[in-house]
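Internal ticket - ligand job 239, adenosine-5'-diphosphate:
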Amino acid sequence: MTTTRRQSVELVRFDHVGLVYPGGAPVLHGLSQSFHVGSFTFLTGVSGAGKTSLLKLIYREAKSTEGTVRVFGKDVSKLNRSELPQFRQRIGIVFQDCRLFPHLTILDNVALALKITGSDIKSSRIYAKELLDWVGLGQHMSDYPAILSDGQKQRVAVARAVIGRPLLLLADEPTGNLDYEAGYRLLRLFEELNKIGTTVIVATHNKNLISEFSYPELELYQGRLISRGREALRKLHSS
Ligand SMILES: Nc1ncnc2c1ncn2[C@@H]1O[C@H](COP(=O)(O)OP(=O)(O)O)[C@@H](O)[C@H]1O
Ligand SMILES: [Mg+2]
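stdout (structure tokens):
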């Protein structure tokens, strides 16, 4: 399959999507946007703009109250409870706070993510070790999360998120607790994954860091997408 062809397939598609949390004010409005197979997108916007909510709509942690969200070609509102685990297996998620299990070694933190899909623990550990080598933490595999730096913990979280070979990687403020250098290194890992075909969406408000990369940026402002791509954003800010 050629790159051009892959780029033309929509992995995630929002059509006129709105979200109102129960008893709350509207959070997202009129979102129509596609994320193509193999794309890398930065989702930006100030705190409260709706970035986390948009990501939650993709992995069906939240349900749109208007419009349609399609992921892997399927309207996610139609997924029933029993279909959700399998659906989410194809999505890797990295959070700002890593969410590692403190009582497990970092090897088992990563391997466990595969084990719960039914893989045997031995092969899960072998693959987890390979991924820890890839993120530069192979020598720490027997350590517990507490002794790692925030940047190292976040790289463990990336290894864990991708061990199931997800088609789509979502990261919600993954660099929020990191210094510039560690944040940059983390985004490079996402870039490597993207280069081998993973579709990546990174929510962040760290404009300095993302200016190092040439990927398109979608900005949310009070729950609406106000710009598409760097050029549009530059024009908007200079007008
Ligand atoms: N579970 C929830 N229930 C009600 N309101 C929420 C919930 N989660 C987020 N919100 C509200 O939705 C808005 C957008 O939040 P969020 O998606 O977390 O934005 P961001 O990630 O850009 O900071 C905020 O006003 C927030 O208070
Ligand atoms: Mg958020």
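Auto-summary: Residues 51-52, 172-173 surround magnesium ion (ligand 2) (CB under 6 Å). The longest strand covers residues 10-20.
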